[in-house]
Amino acid sequence: MLYIKVLGNGCTKCTSTAALITTIATNRGISINLIMESNPEVMMDYRVVSSPAVVINERLMHWGSTPQPYMVESWLNILR
User: Fold this and answer.
1) What is the SS3 assignment for 79?
2) What pTM, to 2 d.p., does this model score?
3) HEC profile for 15-67?
4) Which residues form a coiled coil (predicted)?
5) Closest Cα partner for 64 from 76, 80, 47?
């Protein structure tokens, strides 16, 4: 199982990032535990100043924009 955090304030980009990750994982049969994290202190722990950000298994993968589907697919395939 992959543990995924989407860091951000709950904006449209953050929720669409979470939905994209969930959809791709489901379609690929990859088990994930995804949480949305809006606590600014947590974001600063990852040194993220621009959201949305994606953390997979405590590894910061992306920040500052909604990731492209091919990016999410590659992260999920590499880290599972």
Assistant:
1) helix
2) 0.94
3) HHHHHHHHHHHHHHCCCEEEEEECCHHHHHHCCCCCCCEEEECCEEEEECCCC
4) none
5) 47
Q: What is the mean pLDDT of the chain?
A: 95
Any idea what the Cα angle at residue 62 is, between residues 5 and 9, rounded to 5°? 50
> 63 and 20 in contact (C-beta within 8 Å)?
no
Give the bridge partners for 3, in sequence order.
33
Contact between 7 and 37 (Cβ < 8 Å): yes
DSSP state of 68: P
| pLDDT of residue 78 exceeding 90 | no
- Give the residue-averaged pLDDT of 33-53: 95
> 3-state DSSP call for residue 76?
helix
CB 34 within 8 A of CB 54: no
